[in-house]
Amino acid sequence: MIYKRSSALFTDAEKVIPGGVNSPVRAFKGVGGTPVFVKEAKGAYLYDEDDNRLIDYINSWGPMILGHAYEPVVNAVIEKAKKGTSFGMPTEIETKIAQLAVSMVPNIDKIRFVNSGTEACMSAIRLARGFTGKDKIIKFAGCYHGHSDSFLIQAGSGASTFGTPNSPGVTQGTAKDTLLANYNDIKNVETLIDANRGEIACIIIEPVAGNMGCIPPKEGFLESLRSLCNKHNILLVFDEVMTGFRLAKGGAQELYGINADIVCYGKVIGGGLPVGAFAARSEIMNHLAPLGPVYQAGTLSGNPLAMAAGLAMLTELNSDAEVFNRLSEKTEYLHKGITKVLHDNNVPHTINRVGSMISVHFDESEVYDFTTAAKGNNDTFKSFFHGMLNEGVYIAPSAFETWFITDALTYGDLDFTINAVNRAVKNL
Ligand code: PMP
Fold first, then answer.
1. Is the Cβ–Cβ distance between 359 and 401 less than 8 Å?
2. Does ligand 1 come within 6 angstroms of the Cβ of 296?
3. Catalytic, out of 29, 249, 267, 330
4. Which domains does the chain have, with CATH numbers?
5. ipTM
6. According to the UniProt entry, which residues carry N6-(pyridoxal phosphate)lysine (predicted)?
7. Ligand 1: which atom is nearest the Cα of residue 157?
């Protein structure tokens, strides 16, 4: 494929935007080459500035569950925009989407909307600290909760891709309050709690990790975290920025039957517009300003365009009882197809999948935490990525990312992808 115009646009961008991108994961630093510039997208396809058509497995890193330019979402945004784009005053639609979200998700009474997943997680831990009166948090190596200071400690996703899981600029004072545990290692969590008795406000976790590839929680792991939290008066925070409204209507809480104390959302809840949210029982949420002392605010929070897109999106997901099954079945089909191709071509691999989240690791051993995720063969991944791109299939430009499946994909698209894998692996 030709990427002439994308390359020229990237050269221009690099002069005025650091690294030519507004978020590092978009750069091809991990895989080499220049990023593809998108002109437009519809359904399961991206169309780039060189008029190549690519099947999209990033889907804006999760939210385009129903496909790009999904008509009910687009129409809702257009109609809202005609009536004004921001007021800094309450609007009815904020209550409507809050009512719908609260009705879809178990165990939450109130929700507050923010502008990104980063803000949601940052606010959630402040609330946890304010509510419990304790300072420390436990996070898991390889989990990513946005780029706020407390979380840039062994962060996954782009931070790991670029070799900066611990970022300069995060003070030691902040870092000392973030304790680090290994994903799927409950003994490790217990040891940390014992060593910091009475000091831990919350444990924050991606209930299915999506930022070191896809890593499912081992059986009983989330249950054990829940009971440890109960025992030690620690809040359990589920970061469902990727899993919320994707794995099930009620996200990972519903899928695994575990109640978290605070839940963070992003992406999906805005139907592709900049939105995040955090939610909990009233008892906890009432600690937020203006009811309580924990301060949190935002000029554009609950923005009418974002709320209109989010309401249209959640309404669709709520009314289509089969959507989550369909997504899961399509992903399983892809899983089986890719497994067969890799097996037939003797390519060492491990594929992890939960519902419509899937990742291919180029290593045979089980991938269940950050260390095992990092073992994957990066050179193989790089050439796989470029092979797939050349075949017209766009996957995330990093071995630490998950593929997100959209319902807009047809079985024909999935077969096309499996055939593309077959051709791409011949040149690994
Ligand atoms: N939490 C998780 C689990 C995420 O995957 C991400 C982003 N990929 C975030 C938080 C941060 O969200 P945002 O990029 O919208 O700030």
1. yes
2. no
3. 267
4. 4-69+322-426 (3.90.1150.10), 71-319 (3.40.640.10)
5. 0.99
6. 267
7. 8
